[in-house]
Design a protein that fits this description.
mainly alpha, about 65% helix
Length: about 700
Amino acid sequence: MVSYELYQLNGIAAAPYVAPPPANSCDLTVDTELAQLEAALHATGRPEADLAEVLEGYRTLRCAMREPIRQRKDWEARLKKYEENRPDYSDWPGPAPDDPPVFDLTPYETLLTRLPEEFSLYARGAAAYRGRAHEQALPFFEEIESLPPVNRSYVDLAASYMLGMTCLHLKQYDRALAAYDRVEKMVKDGVPDPAGLASTVAGWKGRVHYEREEWAAAAKYYLKVCGSGNREEQTAALLSLRWTFSKIDAKKHAEQLEVILADEDVRKALLAWCLVNPFDGREISRWLIPRLELLPGPLPYAERIAWLAYNENDMKGAKRWADLAEPGSVLASWVRAKVFLHDGDMDAAIKALSQVVEKTKADSREKDSKAPVWQVYAQTNGDGNIGPVPLDLAERAQAELSAYWVVKKPKNPEEWILAFENLSWHDRMHLAERVMKTEELCKYVRLHFPPNKEANTLDFQNTQQLREVLGRRLVREGRIEEAAEFFRDPARESGLRLVEALREGRNASNSPRERAARLLEAARLTREEVPYETFLYPDWDYGAGFSAYLYSCRTGSDIDKDAVVTGPDRRFNERFIAADLMWEAAALLPDNDPLTAEALYEGGFPIKYDDPKAADRFYKALVRRNPNLAIAQEAKRLHWFPREFNDRVLYTPLPHRFFTRKRAEMIVAVAAALAAFGIAETILAKRKRRKRISPE
């Protein structure tokens, strides 16, 4: 698939396979060296008998070097397996495989003295190099370069090449690049290169930059080999190019991505890789699409960018790029049809897809036999092997057009089967999640996909996916008891636990703390175990590989679930659904309670990058409601969520009492003062009364 996209974007076609000529000795490299040695010996005027003897001895020496490298590779494979299996044993797993024997030059010492110095040094260096003794090989190749030019005229090119290879293994990258540059310069200056060493230099330069994590430079060299190498070199370069792009991190390597963006050829290669690697290339795609919009002038591959935006569930971007594509683009029309389907505009979708059908029919009458067919990855290619297979776009568009007509008119459960049989996985899931009413989907699934039925018009995997879509919709609508039966094993057990936790968490007869604990349990199940989220990915993959990936995500594998859910709609994201349950649990609990803090922390922390505004309410509630807890004070100091939660209580205030000692003393003092004042008033009143009743 990558090779197809490189053909479309960069004009790189598969190199023809050219069978190498048969070797006269053990391989063609030795044949080349023997021809050079023969020319060198003739130049010295040696007798023919002596010349033939030396040539035969050199052929025997160089061919004998092949066996130790085979033994060493076999030993390295066995040692790797030994190291991998070693942790599985509780006791000592036995001795490690013996080191392979080092190639012994002793039997050939007499021969080496009869060779020209440059060939003798080269043979010694080659023997050490093939034995992985790169430190020992390096001085021999260096010594060849130090010889006078007249004494190294035959192996100078090969020695420079081997010097570069040796420095590459020793991680002396600058010296390796210098040696490769020298090889290219020598060939450019007219030095014969019968072994074709210069043609492989670009690939090894890419390897140097790859080892140095200079991804932009590595991709440039690998792409060069893709366009100029033979079939074997092109295949290796294509694989290396894929590995290089997969190593790029949009955040860590932003500068290198800018370098790639500035190079038209490498930029198109990156786009090709993103198109066929939607999982690995998701972050790169999100970085690439907005920057492509800033490039000047129309882009001739706008329909490819539209398809990439569609892969990222960016329907607005997909439509915008499809409109920028060249008029009559089949792929652009196909993308428009799918965007209209997702927008619910069935008339526009049918019109766009009809254009695809007419265009593909016309193209089939004028098909270019030289261009590769559109291929889809991860399906059997006819001989039982997994690999790219052709996609008949005309046939697929015609089938989808029939399905669109079914979607447009009122439907019953029997009619829905036609739509589902003729649409891609992504479009099926879209219909089930967004187009069909819950009751329509419920009737359809119960009629065509009962729990124990594993064989019907759709494959078993899609059967389970539709049942799970219905289960998620029923949960979101609060019909949790009905939803439980639609979860798949092993998630079914978690689904039943979720149903029970939600029921008890919303049971008003339980205590608030018990309800909160059960809601916390439901939130964790939602986020970690139950296939609650919606997968809305487009139909770039029609094989079993994608279904297996989704299944592993649903069953708690090591694959990152965060990489599965994208798009602005948070209603179907398990982290946001769990956050709502955490907030509901926290509302039932008192302040300064570790469980309250735990609910607020677990609700906001997982969504802090996806939606900082939504997470902010959890952060503020955590700080405001729990001033006596360490986690809240740490959050206040950081002005955001700490890395880890802890339930440490800094101090526990005493229960609130009205009659404290100090308050009682104050009350007694006030009462005494009031009593004294009352007594004084009474005495004064009596004196006044006596005066009024006096006889005088």
